[in-house]
Amino acid sequence: MTAYESLNATDGNPQIDSETGQNALGLVDETVDISLAEIAERLVAEREVTVDPSTIWYFFRRRAITYKKRRRMPVSRIATTSA
Questions:
Q1: Which of 2, 20, 63, 68 sits 20 to 30 Å CA-CA off 83?
Q2: pLDDT one-digit tens code per residue, 6-53
Q3: Confidence category of residue 4, pLDDT binned at 50, 70, 90
Q4: How far apart are CA 1 and CA 71, in angstroms?
Q5: How many folded domains does the chain comprise?
Q6: Residue 25 lies in a domain
Q7: Rounded to the nearest 5 degrees, what angle is found at the Cα of 62, between the Cα atoms of 49 and 35?
């Protein structure tokens, strides 16, 4: 089984079908700190769909979906932040 609906002739990037895309979004909702590689592995395990992590990234990018890990705040030089 493949997750690709078609190969876009203009840029050559494969596209994920809507069912697989919804599954990928569900995985992100389920596990907020999941990586693209982990999403690809889970899609293989749960749906028997082989998808490259970069294809998942393009899927999120086309929908303006970004998940960035929050960086830790630097130590305050003026005062301590904890009591």
A1: 68
A2: 334 345 556 788 889 899 999 988 987 888 999 999 999 988 888 899
A3: very low
A4: 38
A5: 1
A6: yes
A7: 50
DSSP label at 71?
Answer: P
Q: Contact at 8 Å (CB) between 63 and 22?
A: no
- Residue 35 domain flag: yes
* Residue 47 is assigned to a structural domain of this protein: yes
Its domain, for residue 54, covers 4-62
Quick: pLDDT tens for 49-83. 888 999 999 998 888 887 666 666 666 667 665 65
Tokens 């130590």 locate to: 75
Asked if the structure places residue 74 within a domain, the reply is: no
